[in-house]
Amino acid sequence: MTPIRELRQFAGLSQGELADLAGISRASVGAVEQGRHVPAADAAVRLARALGTTVEALFAGDERALPAADPVLGGRLPDGAAVRAGRVGGRVVAAALGPDEWAPPDAVVEGTRLRLLGAAVPAGLVVAGCDPALGVAASLLGPERLVAVAATSGQAVKALDAGRCHAALVHGPRLSPRDDVSRVHFARWRAGIAFDRSLRSPSLEALIADVPLIARPSTAATQQAVDRTARRLGLADPTVAGVADTHVDAARTAQWEGCAAVTTEPVAARFGLDFAELEEHTVELWVADRWIDHPGLTALAGLLGSHAFRDRLSPMPGYDLANTGEAA
């Protein structure tokens, strides 16, 4: 794929839109992308300016023509990583696919930049959050409308505040209103500790203090529920056997190792684990107000109230979908 086509797709532009911005014909854009035409100097400058790069990078095969990789969750993406990609304003953002995710990637990291794969067009609503139902929504809508990034509630809010995603899916027993976001009700479910049935229904105190526990990061609302409960009961710190990035990873590890894990009731049920409730959590989608008209949000809002979405979640007990999709 030529740099012009790659950058045009990352910018979410059609050939006609790029032609209008550069003041050349659509046929000329197509010919340049196919390597059949070299534009005059002034047209080359306008093309480069429209795509946010330089003439040298655009036509000399310079790797700087590739978009810079701005990780949704901060840090640095490893070289060679397969990623999902999207655009948040003028930024190209990306998140590595998890080890259990086999969805087609949008791009591959090359150094600090991205190489777009195939005909992928990173144009979807970028949402960071930890509820597995977000992945269900992404599979139903497709990457052109929704890019789901696995993250704790704390990580999701941080990414939202940094402008690296359009929306954050957050949960907790009490969610404080914010003036800079529009809030959409997503679900209700219970946060707690899932445990293997071989443990024979230990007490809550034993689950927290004595049983090896697969914890979540400190930025996870479910882990904060465990910490609050431990303080309320006057217990020592949990016996942590490991830390899982997601609710699903935590429950899966508990199933494999015959121990306990910090997760949610629907995920515990999915893995055939018993469950000790700690708190009921409200799940909300927080959308930065400047992205309220994003077409991906319109598509997601329509999906949340649909039978297709509810039917996909019906095999997972514990999801309360009353009022899903309504303003919070």
CATH class of the largest domain reads Alpha Beta
Radius of gyration: 23 Å
Which CATH architecture of the largest domain is right?
A: 3-Layer(aba) Sandwich
Main sheet summary = 8 strands, mixed
Mean pLDDT: 89
| Total number of helices | 13
Helical/strand content category: alpha/beta
Strand order of the largest sheet: 7-6-8-13-9-12-10-11
What oligomeric state best describes the polypeptide chains here? single chain
Fraction in beta strands: 15-25%
Roughly how much helix do the residues carry, as a percent range? 25-40%
- What is the β-strand count? 13
Element order: H for helix, E for strand = HHHHHEEEEEEHEHEEHEHEHEHEHH
How many separate domains?
A: 3
**Fold-level CATH name of the largest domain:** D-Maltodextrin-Binding Protein, domain 2
Amino- and carboxy-terminal Cα gap: 44 Å
Instruction: Note the overall shape.
Output: elongated
Low-confidence stretches: none
Written account of the structure:
With 328 residues, the protein is α/β, with parallel strands linked by helices. It has three domains: 63 residues, 434 Repressor (Amino-terminal Domain) (Orthogonal Bundle), CATH 1.10.260; 56 residues, no CATH class; 206 residues, D-Maltodextrin-Binding Protein, domain 2. Helices cover 34% and strands 25% of the residues. The chain contains 13 helices and 13 strands. The strands form two sheets. An eight-stranded mixed sheet has the order 7-6-8-13-9-12-10-11, with helices on both faces. Strand 2 and strand 3 form a beta hairpin. Helix 2 packs across helix 3 and helix 2 crosses helix 4. The chain is elongated and about 75 Å long. The mean pLDDT is 89.
